[in-house]
Prior knowledge:
Elements: H1 22-40, H2 46-71, H3 75-97, H4 103-127, H5 132-152, H6 159-197
Helix pairs in contact: 1-2, 1-6, 2-3, 2-4, 2-6, 3-4, 4-5, 5-6
Amino acid sequence: xxxxxxxxxxxxxxxxxxxxxxxxxxxxxxxxxxxxxxxxxxxxxxxxxxxxxxxxxxxxxxxxxxxxxxxxxxxxxxxxxxxxxxxxxxxxxxxxxxxxxxxxxxxxxxxxxxxxxxxxxxxxxxxxxxxxxxxxxxxxxxxxxxxxxxxxxxxxxxxxxxxxxxxxxxxxxxxxxxxxxxxxxxxxxxxxxxxxxx
Length: 198
């Protein structure tokens, strides 16, 4: 590989690594779970928002750090995903610890989470933008960064709005990640078939 060349992240994973499509599919599970849970709850208080985000942060953080380390071939991107997972898990833990603290704490935790993890995912997306996986990371990073901006604008009495937005974020993120993961899986299978046929 030439110096400065972006490593290919599509096709077969590096030796000893899990397939790349596992990361988005596993990340989709906690996102969809909190999204659907909040959607069907009548209570959209700040406490519910903190508890729901706590589950999301912990589970997605473990998935991002663990599977990022096992599926991403590029060393720098892999390290960024581990850091991103730690931030997500720490944010989730903080949401649990301060579950009764009210809307201001919910807004602070979610805003910090979205700003930091959104920036990190944008970075790895830009670093790998020549690949489909990199473009997916760019989309998730941009979406998450926008969430940080939206949460900065929520009024002091907007607990219902904030919790509802967490649910909407979970559903939209989860659906996107499922589509991205399945596209990567099917694209990898087509690439393998083409190689065998050749």
